[in-house]
Automatic annotation (TrEMBL):
<dbReference type="InterPro" id="IPR041916">
    <property type="entry name" value="Anti_sigma_zinc_sf"/>
</dbReference>
<feature type="transmembrane region" description="Helical">
    <location>
        <begin position="96"/>
        <end position="114"/>
    </location>
</feature>
<keyword id="KW-0472">Membrane</keyword>
<protein>
    <recommendedName>
        <fullName>Zinc-finger domain-containing protein</fullName>
    </recommendedName>
</protein>
<keyword id="KW-0804">Transcription</keyword>
<keyword id="KW-0812">Transmembrane</keyword>
<keyword id="KW-0805">Transcription regulation</keyword>
<keyword id="KW-1133">Transmembrane helix</keyword>
């Protein structure tokens, strides 16, 4: 049989998929099988497509007759309403976030002392700030009431190092307790400690050098 008796070689190559899926008619299938025995290209095509044809056959057998091949169209009315509601909720959240951010910036610009300044999230924490023009030492003290006394966080700036310093809590009755001590190795230092005195019994905090010199006094209750 000549190649031109039926179709050209390229058209016969294209029939590899139809043959592998079994959709060729009897006459066309007979002619293609005759061509397939003499064409290495088509033999390779049919071998590659054979596994896909078997998968499709297994899928057809496993799919219940009631399964729809194409999804039904979804009414757009309900979808558009839900989308509009979601967008409105997002806009409200953005407005609230902007308002909160504005309040925070305003408070920072006015120097307001906010509860929970230590970052612990405890609304009972109080932040105190002080600076000594003579020594150049500045500090932020955060005092937080605890059942055992007062938890204290200190953020101090001191350019007079190297030296050893201590934070002392001075009670209203004149008693003293060392909250924390540190070595000044750089300008800014952060330390944490505690005192047995409750916040209400503390009159002031003092930053002192190792020789007892007072470098800074931060009165309790001052902003």
């Amino acid at each position: 049989m000549e190649e031109n008796d039926w179709t050209g070689p390229r058209e016969r190559h294209r029939d590899a998929g139809a043959y592998a899926l079994g959709v060729l008619g009897a006459a066309d299938r007979f002619r293609y099988e005759d061509h397939l025995g003499r064409c290495a290209v088509c033999a390779a095509y049919v071998a590659e497509l054979g596994s896909m044809a078997r998968l499709l056959e297994l899928y057809a057998r496993a799919t219940p007759p009631c399964v729809e091949l194409f999804p039904r169209p979804v009414p757009l009315g309900g979808v558009m309403e839900r989308l509009a509601a979601a967008r409105a909720g997002a806009r409200r959240r953005v407005r609230w976030a902007g308002a909160v951010a504005g309040l925070v910036l305003l408070a920072g610009g006015l120097g307001v002392v906010l509860p929970g300044g230590s970052g612990t999230g405890d609304p009972g924490a109080v932040t105190l700030r002080g600076r000594d023009a003579r020594t150049g030492v500045a500090a932020t003290v955060t005092a937080d009431a605890r059942a055992w006394g007062t938890a204290v966080d200190l953020d101090v700036r001191d350019g007079g190092g190297p030296r050893v310093c201590a934070l002392v809590a001075v009670g209203r009755d004149g008693s003293e307790e060392t909250v924390a001590s540190w070595a000044v190795r750089r300008e800014r230092t952060r330390v944490s400690g505690g005192a047995a005195l409750s916040p209400g019994r503390i009159a002031r905090f003092e930053v002192r050098a190792a020789d007892g010199a007072r470098l800074l006094t931060v009165p309790a209750g001052s902003g």
